[in-house]
Amino acid sequence: MAPEEFRQAGHELVNQIADFLAGLEQKPVTTGEQPPAVRAALGNNSLPAEGSAASGILAEAAQLLFHHSLFNGHPRFWGYITSSATPIGALGDLLAAAVNPNVAAFALSPVATEIEQQTIRWIAEFINYPVSCGGLFVSGGNMANFVGFLAARKAKAAWDIRKDGLQSRNSRLLVYCSRNTHTWIQKAADLFGLGTDAIRWIEPNEEQQLDLSLLEQQIADDRAAGFTPFLVVGSAGTVGTGTVDSLSGIAGICRKNNLWFHVDGAYGAPAAGLPECAALFEGLAEVDSVALDPHKWFYSPLEAGCALVRDPKLLQEAFSFHPDYYNFDGTGDEPPVNYYDYGMQNSRGFRALKVWLGFKQAGRNGYIQMIRDDISLSQKLFSLIQATPELEAVSQNLSITTFRYVPQGMANHPDENYLNKLNEALLNHLQVAGEVFVSNAVISGKYCLRACIVNFRTQWQDLEALVAIAIREGRRLDAQLRQDSTNS
Ligand SMILES: *Cc1c(COP(=O)(O)O)cnc(C)c1O
Q1: Helix crossing, 184-191 with 141-156: angle to 10°?
Q2: What proportions of the chain, in percent to the nearest 5, are helix, strand and coil?
Q3: Which ligand 1 atom lies nearest to the CA of residue 142?
Q4: What pLDDT score does 168 carry?
Q5: DSSP secondary structure letters along 114-170
Q6: Would the CB of 239 count as within 6 Å of ligand 1?
Q7: Which regions of the chain are under pLDDT 70?
């Protein structure tokens, strides 16, 4: 592509993106189209034999994306834990791709490597974790948690596990976590050879936190039975309800038992940067490793996960190999950081840039304010639901509110099976209708709607609309379900 063609195609594309972002709130959150309809929109199925001019195909791609996407940047999107992305992050990704540093080694990415290190320090500083930690960017929370898991496995196995493997010892390594832990732990136990039976699922207490006395008891029982406990995973913001485990309580148990303490803060850890949340996250600074997702509460475009390990040496020891075809040790006085030494990837993109730009643009205080706004909107939503007949407010933590629709007259003698069926039907409708987007959580057997606000575009009126729509559609589906059961 000639420089002038790039310039023109790029300007056209940026204009289209600017219009798209400006008109986002007028669009439906999703089209709700099924796979055949989306496939049909792609049109011609065959691999093009000949090429086409850039500006035409970019315009075609933009139209496809603007008309057949779910928009998680929409002010009424609160599903799962997927945030609105900062526009500056999109420009950052364009710049990163244009220069295309390979952040595997300093020699291949001098300034990108330094920006990544600086951004990692800023994240640690933001959440009040020691800035002397090691860390790196990965694709997301799953991968960031895997980094912590592998660092723990290497550090706590009493033998050379990277060389001898798991088979060389017949005492099984065990990991402890609450039932509310995200499913990454199952993938980790499977992929890294422990097997999912190596997970000791601890029942949560009444506050849905990891139960400390059950944890201690289970560790003691397992030790007595000849197993090798090595890792406890705590959650700083569970994926279902946003609950933060007692981090200082777990840290104490880990210290006493010489276990690694890893915190999954993929969603919630950034809230540790808010002065009013300091007590909730007490103990975070002591933990051995933390996973968090800049593509959640730091609003970076996908993908950006981040792993922090308190002792940088232990991070490197878990991943480093030095083949003789790598000449990356440098010739100066200070050895360079080569990120291939710190994680699972070899060639690596420049994920740090979009995160770094976000921090530079909003500053610490800007992020504190955006996170604070999400939490206070969520609390206000919970109060509104509590005060609304036909809706039952179920839980509120960080920026996650769960609730369900309960038809008039059923609140005092609920038919739980019916309510679960009704709320599941309600969720399925809301997720395709395009007015709002929420996801679900099952809490103590109750099927709930779940609004997770990691969205700087959401205004209070959007949440008032959610309440009105949930009641309107709840009534309609209730009438329809009753009609169906009369007919059958
Ligand atoms: C989102 C999330 C994950 C998974 O993160 P990905 O970025 O989707 O890989 C893990 N744990 C928690 C608590 C999460 O919220």
Answers
A1: 50
A2: 50, 15, 40
A3: 9
A4: 75
A5: HHHHHHHHHHHHHTT--TT-EEEEESSHHHHHHHHHHHHHHHH-SS-HHHH-STT-S
A6: yes
A7: none
Question: To the nearest 10°, the Cα dihedral for 373, 423, 179, 127?
Answer: -10
Per-residue pLDDT at 202: 98
Separation CA 169–CA 327 (nearest Å): 36
**What b/e string do you get for 264-300 counting C-beta neighbours within 10 Å, with b at 16 or more?**
bbbbbbbbbbbeebeebbbbbbbbbbbbbbbbbbbbb
Angle, CA of 43, 44 and 50, to the nearest 5°: 135
- Give the position, in ligand 1's atom list, of the atom nearest the Cα of 141: 5
* CB proximity list for 373: less than 8 A, separation 6 or greater: 456
Helical packing angle, 352-386 and 460-487, nearest 10°: 60
* Cα 199 to averaged position of ligand 1 atoms, centre (Å): 18
Q: How far is CA 212 from CA 35, 163, 229, 247, 254, in A?
A: 46, 34, 15, 10, 11
211 lines ligand 1 (CB under 6 A): no
Asked if residue 140 has its Cβ within 6 Å of ligand 1, the reply is yes
Task: Tell me what pLDDT residue 347 has.
Answer: 97
In terms of Cβ atoms closer than 10 Å to its own Cβ (0-12, 13-18, 19+), residue 87 is: middle
The predicted pLDDT at position 106 comes to 97
Q: Is 265 in the pocket of ligand 1 (CB under 6 A)?
A: no
Is the distance from the beta carbon of residue 267 to the nearest atom of ligand 1 less than 6 Å? yes
Q: Name the DSSP letter for residue 212.
A: H
Q: State the distance from the centre of ligand 1 to the C-alpha of 273, rounded, in angstroms.
A: 19
For residue 329, what pLDDT is reported?
84
Question: Can you give the pLDDT at residue 370?
Answer: 98
Query: What pTM value is reported for the model?
Result: 0.96
- Report pLDDT for 328: 83
